[in-house]
Amino acid sequence: MTSMTRRAFGALAAATMLTGVSAASAEPIKVGILSLVSHSPSIIAEGKGYFKEQGLDVEFVPFQAAQPMAVAIASGDVDFGVTAMTGGLISLAEKGAVKIIGGALQETPEIDGQKIIVSKAAFESGVTTPKQLAGKRFGITTAGSSFHYMANKIADKEGFARSAMQLVPLNAVPAVIASLKSGQIDAWSIVPNIAAGLTKGGEIHEIGKVSDYIDNYQVTTVFTSSDNVANNRKLVEQYLAALSKGIADYNAAFVDKTMAADDTKAIVGMIHKYVYSDRPIEAADPAIRAGAMRINQGARLNVGSVKDQLEWFKSEKLVPAEASMEKLVDTSFVETF
After folding, report:
1. What ranges in the chain are assigned the alpha helix state H?
2. Looking at the domain assignment, is residue 336 inside a domain?
3. Angle between helices 281-289 and 192-199 (to 10 degrees)
4. Which of 31, 84, 254, 315 is placed for a possible disulfide with 146 were both Cys, Cβ 3.0 to 4.6 Å?
5. pTM of the predicted protein model
6. Is residue 186 within 8 Å of 204, Cβ to Cβ?
7. In this prediction, what percent of the chain has a pLDDT beyond 90?
C-alpha cells in the first residue's frame, strides 16, 4: 500500500461518512497476530465489525514469534502488529523503519500474570524455586525475545550471573512447549492460560511468577511502520480506535467479567477461529477464558517499562548502544504512564 492510496482513501471515507463505508471502499490492511489469547482484541475488533466501522478491511497474517513480525512490518508486508519488544524491533526502529505506538498486555498487581514453569524432571531434581534455575536450560524463542528478557531479570534478582542460565533458542512457542514436555529444556516463562494448561497434567510444574521479578511489565506493545506514523496518521488512528474497542470487550469478557454470558460466549467463538483452533470449541473454551491478563485500555503505554526493556537490550549488546526512546516510541497516539 502506498501513501497515495491511503490519502485517496481518506478523501473517499470522508465523502461516504454519512452513508456508511462499503466493502468496496474499505482500506485493506494486514495485521500480524500470534496464536495466543493475548491477541484476542484484534480478533474481536474484526469479528464485531470495529475495523469496518473505521473503514478498514483487515487480513490477519499469522506468525509464530515476535521478531519476524517486526521484520514484516518494516518491509511493508504487514501494517500493524501487537507483540513483545525484541532486539530486531529496536534495531529496526533505530534505522527508522518501525515505531511503537501503544501498549497492550500488561502485568498488573491485581491480576494473576505470567508464570515460571519447569519440566517434571527438573522439578523432581530439586528445581522448586526460581533461585535454583542457575545452571539450568531455559527455553526462549530467539535471542532478544521477551523470554530472554524475563530469564535475565530472574537471574538478576536471584543474584546469579545471567550466563549461569543456559538459554536455548527454539524459534517458536510450540517448539518451546514440546521441548519442555520432553525434558529437553528445564524451564520457561509464559502467560497464565498456557501455563495453566501445561501444569494441569502434572508433567509441568509452576515455581514462580514473573511479577516478582519485573514491576508492571509492559509485556506486549502495538507497533507499525515509521512510514505509517509519518505519512498515514489517520490510518494509525483508525486502527487504534478499532483495536481499543476490541480491548474493552476483551477486558469486560475475561478480566473484569462484566460482560453478559451470551456475549462472552460469542467472543470465545470468534477467538476460537485463530486460537486453539485445532481443538473442539468445548475444549478450547476454558483454555481461552483461563488466566486472562489485563490489556491496557485505549492501548495506553507504560513508557517506564519500555525504557527498562530498552536498557536491558543495550546491556546485553543486542541492540546498538545509541538506541534511543525517541527513535523507538511515538507517544502522540495514546496515553502514556
Report:
1. 3-15, 40-47, 50-53, 66-75, 87-94, 120-124, 146-158, 173-182, 192-199, 226-231, 233-250, 261-272, 281-289, 303-315, 325-328
2. no
3. 120
4. 84
5. 0.84
6. no
7. 82
